[in-house]
């Protein structure tokens, strides 16, 4: 018998892997054993742990009305456990068996997640008690001591793993480390924090945070462009067990715990696990009107039943269509603290071979040949946008990202889609990951009708450039109305800029046609350069676009400049400049074109970091070739001159003059100076 039990335990061991010493750590649910007494060596006979500092009780202040859940905007979660957001301090109290004496007693805190905690992976976090908390870094300090109790303020890292952590208090003794025993009452959930500037999902508008993170109901727009219908949807991200169900989805997707602080990775794996194709995910889709042994998609009213059923049965829930996938995905994102909204695209293209055009093949009589035609246009299609920075892309592509849980096409071998930057889609820069060409085609593809002649050649009969993506909408912030966001995705239909973005997208994203072997030839005989004049805050400045025509032909170039104000993280706040012009390019010569940027155009929207991001796109009309560039620029902010008067001797008074030139055409009010001299004087604030 002993042998058989032995083999069954053998089986449970993860397979050995020659490349890694520690097995993969991709379950938030699994735990390791943590020793309550970790001896340094032989323990002398007289050793009695009771002689040392001992933890009697830990108070987590975890009730909805208490300080932690109030300050962290987590008071709506129906959960008895502590739930906090990363990069922001929270409070706990430890009661010892006697007063804590910092001179002789030493204790620290430990947060662990998963079965194989490791410090370098962020899955084992020891926290020493210090004097100050550094913003956005793990740390703890004592805020209050009374009798046998200490109050602690704990700061979590702003890029910490999202999930459920186990918590221990460890006390040092000369013979070993004494730990509190495993107590699930002290488990701590850590979520994304859109209120924290250092968090990748930081959103700077309180009304938007209330809508895109805290609102647990919403509206789905459906129907067709000429007959828009709406249905309400209950997201229910705060309901009982939903947070655990959402964490389970990441376990199901086998996302390494160390990757769970990154919203890009979380969105990407979630877009695959929301649908049941290829990974037994949450919802099975059905579009054929037969819903045997399941709930018809239109019967669902919200996400909670679906997520809870999946969490308990671990089997796909039947059935969903696009708005069901999107509704559940929205719950998942908001529950974890990623700002998210559900978006509907009317006349949405499903471009089967990602050539940015929908190919409709006609037969001899001019009817669509259903055997050959693989692309389709949906009356509407719902997906989600999630808000985050994109440090993996150039500046300017953060902000709203398209993620789509509806299984349409595979991406890197799985049914998933996104995150794809909305800003990159608008400007046609579809070379940036993930799945931008597919989303671009959904909102912009041209419908190409072609007919095959008897001799086998294909003749293009008609190209419809305005049908796809006529209207893109989401629910308005703080109300139930419809907000149109078409222009976040595309320029005015039929405008020069829109055609230009399409041709840029074709340049970056097109796959070679198999029907006609035409490969893309870049424009080599014209070069475009783009300079932004150094500018001081509040002044006008110019940007210069220079073309070098190296050929012997005369060309004209339709050129479009877009100027955007961006956060320093690269997230776009607003477009403040649009300018189109036609440039004549003489043979074998350079031509420069200046565009004036007036201060009045950018001052009202400017942010504290004063950064701009420009796109320039040009089409050579005679050859149809595209040139595209982008550039980030930052305004000069006036420098401060500091002068001292009198003796600079320690312990004596002296006066300091601070000067700067106000570059604005208005008087400054409410000016605050902060003066700090490390080791010399505490920070002084003075209002003028």
From TrEMBL:
Transmembrane segments: none
Protein name listed in UniProt: Coagulation factor XIII A chain
GO cellular component terms, A-Z: cytoplasm; extracellular region
Compartment(s) of residence: Cytoplasm; Secreted
Active site: 322, 381, 404
Binding, Ca(2+): 444, 446, 493, 498
SUPFAM superfamilies the record matches: Cysteine proteinases (SSF54001), E set domains (SSF81296), Transglutaminase, two C-terminal domains (SSF49309)
Complex formation: Tetramer of two A chains (F13A1) and two B (F13B) chains.
Disordered as annotated region, ranges: 1-34
Residues covered by the Transglutaminase-like domain: 314-407
One Pfam family hit: Transglut_C
Top EC category: transferase
Cofactor(s) the protein requires to work: Ca(2+)
Described function: Factor XIII is activated by thrombin and calcium ion to a transglutaminase that catalyzes the formation of gamma-glutamyl-epsilon-lysine cross-links between fibrin chains, thus stabilizing the fibrin clot. Also cross-link alpha-2-plasmin inhibitor, or fibronectin, to the alpha chains of fibrin.
Enzyme Commission identifier(s): 2.3.2.13
Reactions that this protein is recorded to catalyse: L-glutaminyl-[protein] + L-lysyl-[protein] = [protein]-L-lysyl-N(6)-5-L-glutamyl-[protein] + NH4(+)
